[in-house]
UniProtKB/TrEMBL annotation:
It comes from Cohnella fermenti. Gene3D superfamilies: HAD superfamily/HAD-like, Putative phosphatase, domain 2. One of its GO terms (biological process) is DNA repair. Keywords: Hydrolase. GO terms for molecular function: phosphoglycolate phosphatase activity. This is HAD family hydrolase.
């Protein structure tokens, strides 16, 4: 099973509200962006995109320098806040992942985020040891989620897998690589129709176990 991170395992808004405020306070102090702070919904609605595309959407009126600095600050403040205990996993994520691993399922993370963020969130929230690998666009410099997933599958010789995520990029990545796609409909900031094409949609994380049982009986 290949898991997206934000909006799938990690309740990103529990971290980003604080982080975005700090990012724009610093940009303002440094004179790089003087407009009002954008609504947090714009950032949350951009999750799943590559970072360069996120900042173009969040502050289209910002300079290239401001967006590059925002990238640096985002990672710095995310890691600081995570270390301080800010940010939480969705309910039942640790328990469900442990059950899956006990059943012999190989677990991976595949995210369009930065390398250190994608590795540190699971580690700092106590689930890092459950995963066989962490794949990020930041580390592998992939242009799409589909490309990242293809690389993961090839590297580990995986022929059959599930892609689990909350964004259209996850659905696309799964379908383009011939995987069964499970759409996660509990994050609250997806667009209408974003999970179209999923083989199944769950509204609570433990429903994965029910799907697995049903697949085993089929």
């Amino acid at each position: 099973m290949l898991f997206d991170l934000d909006g799938t395992l990690f309740k990103t808004e529990s971290l980003l509200v604080t982080v975005q405020r700090r990012v724009f306070e610093t940009l303002r102090e440094e004179g790089l962006y003087t407009e009002p702070e954008p609504p947090i919904e714009r950032l949350l609605g951009s999750l799943g995109m590559l970072l360069d595309h996120i900042w173009l959407r969040v502050m289209p009126d910002g300079s290239t320098e401001a967006r590059q600095r925002a990238n640096e600050l985002l990672l710095q403040y995310e890691l600081e806040e995570l270390e301080a205990g800010v940010g939480e996993l969705y309910e039942w994520v640790p328990e469900t992942l442990r059950t899956l691993k006990e059943r012999g399922i190989r677990l991976f993370v595949a995210s369009n985020g930065l390398e250190s963020y994608v590795k540190e969130v699971p580690r700092l929230r106590g689930i890092g040891d459950l995963f066989e690998g962490f794949y990020s666009a930041g580390e592998y410099e992939t242009a799409t989620k589909a490309e990242l997933v293809r690389l993961l599958l090839e590297k580990h010789g995986i022929r059959s897998a599930w892609m689990i995520g909350d964004r259209s990029s996850d659905v696309d990545a799964g379908l383009r690589n011939g995987l069964f796609v499970v759409g996660c409909d509990y994050a609250g900031f997806r667009k209408e129709g974003e999970l179209d094409g999923s083989g199944a949609v769950i509204r609570e994380f433990p429903e994965l176990l029910t799907l697995l049982d049903a697949a085993a009986e089929a």
